[in-house]
Amino acid sequence: MIKTIQQINIGILGGGQLGRMLIQNAINLNLTISILDPDKNAPCRHLVKKFTQGNLNDYDTVYDFGKDKDLITIEIENVNVEALKALEKEGKKVYPQPHIIEMIQDKGLQKMFYQRNNIPSPDFFLVEKKSQISKYADYFPFFQKLRKGGYDGKGVVKLVNPHHLDKAFEAPSVLERLVDFDKELSVIVARSESGEIKCFPVVECEFNPEANLVEFLFSPANIKKSVEKEALKLATDIAEKLGIIGLLAVELFLTKDGKVLVNEIAPRTHNSGHHTIEGNITSQFEQQWRAILNLPLGDTAIIKAGVMVNLLGDFGYEGTAIYQGLEDVLKFSGVYVHLYGKATTKPFRKMGHATIVDDDILKAKQKAKLVKNTLKIIA
Questions:
Q1: I need a labelling partner for 376 at 20 to 30 A (CA). Which of 25, 138, 176, 291 fits?
Q2: β 71-74/93-94 pair status
Q3: How many Å apart are CA 144 and CA 132, to the nearest integer?
């Protein structure tokens, strides 16, 4: 008996904001979703019929969660890959595929993948411990990135010279040479089970220098056509070479001399695609379901220019979240606020995002700055 998509029993590893937005789109297709997350108060808890609290890195927990599912996907890549491999061997569909998650979990393996496949990326060295860093004295400065476990700017430190390594990590790491870049770009690419591939238009990211995470995102990116073409080609090439089924976020550097380099990739829906909910014909979250259910991929064209601003917990506040100024920003035309349902805030925690759409990107940028300065998340 062939199951319809509504009869497929789907499990998502992770119940944070990405899972929440995936569920919002799953409801439109009447999909049956279960969630596994370590936090009993996870944002997804009350949005599904079955919520399981458990460790995403524990083999038995992940295996037991997945054994009655037809399809397992992720909203976070920090999961137990061996359990997913076992489930895949038993005939479960696991998308993205476990071997791809395993490679992307390790920034060293990522860099070697780029090297093997002639994908342009910043020069790098691999070290096992802090004492090995001084061997590369002639190549400073570096960003030292933990091979495993880093996210949202955590697990990354700038090393300026070999004589000041007090901040260096004592762990297996990638030493990535600093790039003199002009812009940071991102492309979300989808590849379905049938091999169909579609990219979303290139976006431009502006980072918060303190938190080292995206503060603003601009769609479309203000770049030359030749740069756009190269960025989309790189994203497509990587998706094809990986053979990924699902979504892939490809983060890029545009250097001051016009080269496009791959920074990192993430095998899931991504912060750099949130604007697609209001700004594009198909959102990244709908596209994820289309890709892993082997449905036709949706039209990724831009409806209106958009700016996404991450709503971060204000510095100096920790505790039960209070959204100050929400009523004021909702008075602005074209402003869409998404709150993630996190009960507590702390400095720089992602508590939500707002997308601002307008016919004029400059007007959208002005409104985005007003939103950032008006909507404060305190305790």
A1: 25
A2: parallel
A3: 12
Buried/exposed code over 111-136 (b: 16+ C-beta within 10 A; e: otherwise): bebbeeeebebbebbebeebeebeee
Q: Record the tokens describing residue 164, joined without a space.
A: 């000041």
Task: Check: CB of residue 278 under 8 Å from CB of residue 336.
Answer: yes
pTM over 0.90: yes
In this structure, which CATH number among 3.20.20.70, 2.30.110.10, 3.40.50.10240, 3.40.50.20 belongs to the domain 5-94?
3.40.50.20
The tokens for 262 are: 């791959």
**With helix as H, strand as E and coil as C, how does 322-344 read?**
EEECHHHHCCCCCEEEEECCCCE
Dihedral sign for Cα atoms in the order 190, 188, 280, 371: positive
CATH number of 181-378: 3.30.470.20
Check residue 1 and give its pLDDT.
Answer: 54
Q: How far is CA 181 from CA 209, 329, 375, in A?
A: 15, 33, 31
End-to-end CA, the chain:
53
What are the φ/ψ torsions at residue 191 (nearest 5 degrees)?
A: -135, 125
Please determine, for residue 204, whether its predicted confidence score (pLDDT) is greater than 80: yes
Query: Residue 27: is it exposed, middle or buried by C-beta count within 10 angstroms (0-12/13-18/19+)?
Result: exposed
Residue 13 identity (one-letter amino acid) = L
- What H or E segment, with its residue span, contains residue 369? helix 361-374
| CB distance 168 to 130 below 8 Å | yes
How far is the C-alpha of 360 from the C-alpha of 153, rounded, in Å?
31
DSSP string, 86-135: HHHHTT-EESS-HHHHHHHH-HHHHHHHHHHTT-----EEEESSGGGGGG
d(CA 173, CA 6): 43
Q: Encoding tokens for residue 62?
A: 């992940």
pLDDT in tens, 45-103: 999 989 999 999 999 999 999 999 999 999 999 999 999 999 999 999 999 999 999 99
CATH code at 123-177: 3.30.1490.20
Give the Cα separation of 310 and 354 in Å (integer). 7
| Torsion angle, alpha carbons of 135, 111, 217, 325, to 10 | -70
Mean pLDDT of 154-166: 88
